[in-house]
């Protein structure tokens, strides 16, 4: 997906001060929320992600219908404790493919109902625990806890760790809603956050497991900015935009036993990884790396890792 460089002010550089203790001014928070509040007319769950935001015009172009499959979601276990075979070691890596950032990135690249939101320009977005809102509200998204370690590696340099890169992660909640966009959560900013890779190329996010909404395999969005925080003022400057495919066994375990994800059951039974409009054209090696390796249980939560390869 083509990206264009456009300036958006100081951006995430302001978060360096926030880490030192400076909190976002409430007036600024309310201003942002007033802008994105007009997005409430959007569907309450996630939309079609088969096409990306149009960066040059600032609008989102999406298909009139979602891509879905009548085949059932593949799974190998229905037990509450499960693990995935996804993920690869840092000694063997492939370049992650570029994927759409979808209609709900809140990275300054798209417009919804005439309003543009960009959390990447907001103090407070640099955080490891992304379960709570950080703009105006402090509400926390409810769901099965997920702690995910992402390791960024350079495919052209023997899978060496990429140090000092900013990684922006976002995804839907347990009801399939995206904060700042979906009806009922337009004033929330949860399940969005940025971390900077350490000396091993790693970042850690504490979040909740995403739902499965109509027409898509369960997934987590991410953007990588190899220029670090100072470069990450907008999604237009991202080095890589892609997604993680959630492992089938864990999807089945959570959706079939946790009532907070009841709406996901029918949606998940109607999709498959091979027919997904984002993951369906990826190679087996790419899919293996894009699928986090998770362990844990529905009651205790899940932990795991995923490798992200930069070409």
From TrEMBL:
This is Intradiol ring-cleavage dioxygenase. Keywords: Dioxygenase, Oxidoreductase. GO terms for molecular function: dioxygenase activity. Residues 42-116 are annotated as: Disordered. Transmembrane segments: none annotated. Residues 142-215 form the Intradiol ring-cleavage dioxygenases domain. The keyword Oxidoreductase applies. Residues 50-92 have a biased composition (Low complexity). It comes from the Bacteria.
């Amino acid at each position: 997906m083509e990206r264009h460089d456009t300036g958006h002010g100081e951006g995430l550089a302001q978060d360096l001060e926030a880490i030192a203790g400076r909190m976002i001014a409430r007036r600024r928070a309310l201003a942002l929320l007033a802008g994105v509040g007009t997005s409430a007319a959007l569907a309450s769950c996630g939309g079609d992600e088969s096409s990306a935001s149009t960066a040059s015009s600032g609008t989102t172009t999406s298909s009139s219908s979602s891509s879905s499959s009548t085949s059932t979601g593949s799974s190998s276990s229905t037990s509450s404790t499960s693990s995935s075979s996804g993920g690869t070691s840092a000694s063997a890596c492939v370049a992650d493919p570029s994927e759409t950032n979808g209609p709900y990135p809140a990275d300054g690249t798209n417009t919804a109902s005439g309003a543009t939101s960009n959390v990447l320009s907001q103090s407070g977005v640099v955080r490891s625990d992304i379960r709570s809102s950080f703009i105006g509200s402090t509400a926390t998204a409810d769901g099965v806890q997920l702690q995910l370690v992402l390791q960024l590696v350079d495919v052209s340099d023997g899978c060496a760790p990429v140090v000092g890169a900013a990684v922006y992660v976002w995804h839907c909640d347990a009801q399939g809603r995206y904060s700042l966009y979906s009806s009922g959560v337009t004033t929330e900013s949860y399940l969005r956050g940025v971390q900077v890779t350490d000396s091993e190329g790693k970042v850690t996010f504490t979040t909740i497991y995403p739902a499965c909404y109509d027409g898509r395999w369960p997934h987590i969005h991410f953007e990588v900015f190899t220029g670090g925080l100072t470069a990450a003022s907008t999604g237009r400057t991202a080095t890589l935009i892609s997604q993680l495919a959630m492992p089938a066994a864990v999807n089945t375990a959570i959706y079939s036993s946790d009532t907070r994800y009841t709406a996901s059951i029918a949606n998940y039974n109607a999709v498959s990884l091979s027919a997904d409009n984002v993951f369906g054209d990826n190679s087996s090696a790419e899919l293996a790396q894009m699928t986090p390796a998770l362990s844990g249980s529905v009651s205790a939560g899940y932990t795991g890792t995923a490798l992200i390869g930069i070409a």
